[in-house]
Amino acid sequence: MMNMAQARPIAPNSPSQKQKLPAPRRGLHLSPHMVDVAVQVAVVAALAGIWEFGARFGALNPFLLPPLSVVLGRIWEDLIAGTVPVDLGLTLYRALLGFAIGAVIGIPAGILMARSNVVRWFLDPLVSIGFPMPKIAFLPIFILWFDIYDTSKIIMVAFSCFFPIVAATYAGCSSLDKWPIWSARSFGAGERELLWEVYLPMAMPQILTGLQVALPVGMITTIVTEMLMGGRGVGGAMIMAGRFADSVGVFAGIVQIIILGFVVVKSVEMIRRRILIWHPESRR
């Protein structure tokens, strides 16, 4: 007769049963963010290879499109000579200062438009007319009013950045849910507490989106004004190279603009994630 101890089934969590389970397979697991970065790097590398080999082997005219290695060599020479840091520094200074002025004026204006009917009646027609208008058309006026140096360029950048910032801020503050505002008021919150603890936190994603749109606009405006007005800066260096048929110098400026724009845009994205660490979009 079979022993009772032998007939008893093995418990699912017993050591002998655990030993029979297959070991999990270990492999390389890539996050979606890493996959996106890898794809972007592969696309950029492919375009750079097509550019280099197409110009090297005669598929493209070397004068109209010089090889990438030659362009990078020119950038390195200018970097050693000290012209690249000066040009990039001046361009970045004008773009960021004009952007900051536009943000300092545009964010309060958008908040006042959302909270005051009088301000909205006054500013809404101006914003509606000025937003779709090409801002660079005002450059001759700014040159006449101010000067041909940094002042007119910075004011031109601030003027271009103002409209997307004020529009995004107004949209964010005017579309807020009323229940948190009513709840805060029922607990005795004043207008200042409502502004800093309800309006701004809830509208912050929309405001930051407006800032992210305005910053590239400001950089584009800076390059265009430097090209039109001349002087030091990436745009001025490019237009000077174009006047002397220096195609390598022109493409060197384009590569510098690409690198500068990439660094600035990615920096703004990192700042956005830091500011909105409490927001659901940061979890995604």
UniProtKB/TrEMBL annotation:
UniProt entry tagged with the keyword Transmembrane helix: yes
Signal peptide extent: none
Superkingdom of origin organism: Bacteria
Annotated region (Disordered), positions in chain: 1-23
InterPro entries documented for this protein: MetI-like, MetI-like_sf
Membrane topology: Multi-pass membrane protein
Domain ABC transmembrane type-1, residue spans: 88-272
Regions that span the bilayer: 34-54, 92-114, 126-148, 154-173, 194-224, 244-265
Localization of this protein: Cell membrane
This protein's UniProt keywords: Cell membrane, Membrane, Transmembrane, Transmembrane helix, Transport
PANTHER family, per database record: ABC TRANSPORTER PERMEASE PROTEIN MJ0413-RELATED (PTHR30151:SF0), ALKANE SULFONATE ABC TRANSPORTER-RELATED, MEMBRANE SUBUNIT (PTHR30151)
Protein family membership: Belongs to the binding-protein-dependent transport system permease family.
Protein name as annotated: ABC transporter permease
